[in-house]
Amino acid sequence: MRATVTGDLETVELSVGGVALAGVTAGRLIGVGAGPGDPELLTLKAVRALAEADVLAYFAKAGRRGNGRTILDGLGKADGIASLFAPGQMEGILKPGRIELPLYYPVTVEIDKEHDDYKGQITAFYDASAASVAAHLDAGRTVAILSEGDPMFYGSYMHLHVRLAGRYAAEVVPGVTAMSGCWSLAGLPIVQGDDVLSVLPGTMDETELCRRLGDTQAAVIMKVGRNLPKIRRALAASGKLDNAVYVERGTMANAAMTPLADKLTDEAPYFSLVLVPGWSGRIVDGAI
Questions:
Q1: Domain at 179-276: CATH code
Q2: Is the pLDDT of residue 3 over 50?
Q3: Identical fold at 2-176 and 179-276?
Q4: 15 with 21: CB under 8 angstroms?
Q5: Does the pLDDT at position 251 exceed 60?
Q6: How confident is the model over 73-111, as pLDDT tens digits?
Q7: Is it the case that residue 274 has pLDDT exceeding 70?
Q8: What is the pLDDT of residue 109?
Q9: Residue 250: CB partners within 8 Å, gap ≥ 6?
Q10: What are phi and psi of 75, to 5 degrees?
Q11: Which of 118, 128, 251, 270 could form a disulfide with 111 if both were Cys (CB 3.0 to 4.6 A apart)?
């Protein structure tokens, strides 16, 4: 069979009957955690992986740059960052002219995530994305797939990993998660000792969300967006609203945070979460 790949490269013969052609060594797949938004929170290992990659893949909405790709753009613009690298190393990371593979999400905003149409569209998207990446891997290229935060924590990369890691050499470079970036930005101790931390999606049923909040000392509520009114109610019902802190675009240049009880509107961007600390950090009777 033949497959066309993007970039300034010709169509290449990849395999016949599913068997790789002699002399063609399959490439390497790298899931790269891009961190929560501040380009300086990219790890050294992530930077090395990006420098090694022949193909840079990233998820995005149609017509947009994509948040992971935008973080990488910021690396080249951050004051003083270039001086931390060896001569030519920054150019190796950003690589003008490198093959880029944007993976555009289907438009599913108006479809309930439990609906068969949503499941069908998103499954088809991940199948097609995996096939696009596989074409480059079959051609012997190293493909780095950017993922905001950590690739294996609510990351789209994991859906490609489970489709490809059994067929190709694969590596995952962990990234700083959004929640750790946000609680560090807020200077908010979250758990200590035997405290239990629960990570909860704001998309879950309100009754279940309330129950889980009541059963834990600390919580991080992800996927806030239009679920904020429901999250407020669940926090109030569980007695945790007064301790909750709302953070949006944590570690990014336009980051903002406020006690959730003081937030006047129910508007919340995609990059927002709610922190509920389990530890007050207060010194009581000479001990913490």
A1: 3.30.950.10
A2: no
A3: no
A4: yes
A5: yes
A6: 888 776 667 667 766 666 667 777 889 999 999 975 555
A7: yes
A8: 55
A9: 36, 37, 178, 181, 182, 185, 257, 271, 273
A10: -60, -40
A11: 118
- Burial (CB count within 10 angstroms: exposed 0-12, middle 13-18, buried 19+), residue 279: middle
Assigned CATH topology for domain 2-176: Cobalt-precorrin-4 Transmethylase; domain 1 (3.40.1010)
Contacts of residue 143, defined as CB under 8 A and 6 or more positions apart, other chains included, come to 27, 28, 29, 30, 53, 54, 55, 57, 101, 133, 136, 137
For the chain, what are the domain ranges? 2-176, 179-276
Q: Which of 93, 55, 57, 88 is nearest to 73 (CA)?
A: 93
- In the numeric block, which tokens belong to residue 98? 């490198």
CA angle, corner 83, sides to 81 and 87, nearest 5? 120
- Integer Cα distance of 277 and 183 in angstroms: 9
pLDDT, tens digit (0-9, with 9 covering 90-100), for 120-142: 999 999 999 999 999 999 999 99
What digits encode the pLDDT tens for the residues 183-206?
Answer: 999 999 999 999 999 999 999 999
Give mean pLDDT, residues 221-241: 97
